[in-house]
Amino acid sequence: MSFGKSFRVLEKKVVEKAKPEQPHSIILEHRSRSETLLFESHAIASLSAQETDAVRKQYIKIVDAYGCLGVLQLHAGETTLQYLVMITGCFSIGKIADSEIFRITQTQFVSLQHQQPNEDKIVEVRKVLNSGTFYFSWNTNPNQQFDITLCAQRRRKTNETDNRFFWNRMLHIPFLRFGIDFDFWLLKAMCGSIEIRTVYAGSKQARAIIISRLSCERAGTRFNVRGVNDDGHVANFVETEQAIYLDSEVTSYVQTRGSVPLFWEQPGVQVGSHKVKLSRGFEATVPAFDKHLTMMKQRYGRLVICNLLGTSLIGNKEGEAMLSNEFQKQHENSVHIDVPHIIFDYHQECRGGNQANLSKLKERFDKCCRRFGFFYASGDEVVQEQYGTIRTNCIDCLDRTNCVQTFIGLDVLNEQIKIIGLSDKKQTFSRFEEVFKQMWIANGNEVSKIYAGTGAMGAGSKLIDGARSAARTIQNNLLDASKQEAIDILLLGSTLSSELADRARILLPTNMLHAPTQVLREMCLRYNEYISTTEIRVAIGTYNVNGGKHFRSVVYKDLSLIDWLAPKSESIVEIEHSNSVHDKMADIYAIGFQEIVDLNAQNIMAASSDNAKAWAEELQRVLSVKEDEPYALLTSQQLVGVCLYVFIRPQLANCLRDVATDSVKTGLGGATGNKGAAAIRFVLNGTSFCFVAAHFAAGQSQVVERNADYAEITRKITFPMGRTLKGHDYVFWCGDFNYRIDMNKDEIKECVKNGDLQAVLENDQLKKQQEAGQVFNDFLEGEITFPPTYKYDLFSDDYDTSEKARAPAWTDRVLWRRRQQQADADNPNWNPGHLLFYGRAELKQSDHRPVVAILDIEISTIDADRRANVFNDVIKCLGPPDATVVIQSVQHYTTEDDESIYDENLTVGLVQELAEIGEVTLVRFVGETMWVTFKDGQAALAAVNRKQNLNICGVDLHLRLKTEDWPNEVEKEIKICTTNCAPLCDYIDIPSEEYASTPSEIVAKVKPPPPRPALPKSPQVTPKHQPKHQAGIIDVSQIIRPQQQQQQPPERPSLPPRPAIPQRPEMKTEQKTSPPSQETPKQSPLETTYQAPSAIYEEINDDIQTQAQPKEPPPQLPMRPLEMPPIPQRNNVNQSNQQIPQKNMNQPNQLPQIPQRNNTNQLPQVPARQPPPPLPARNMN
Question: Ranges of Pro residues compositional bias (predicted)?
Answer without folding.
Answer: 1007-1016, 1050-1062, 1111-1128, 1169-1181
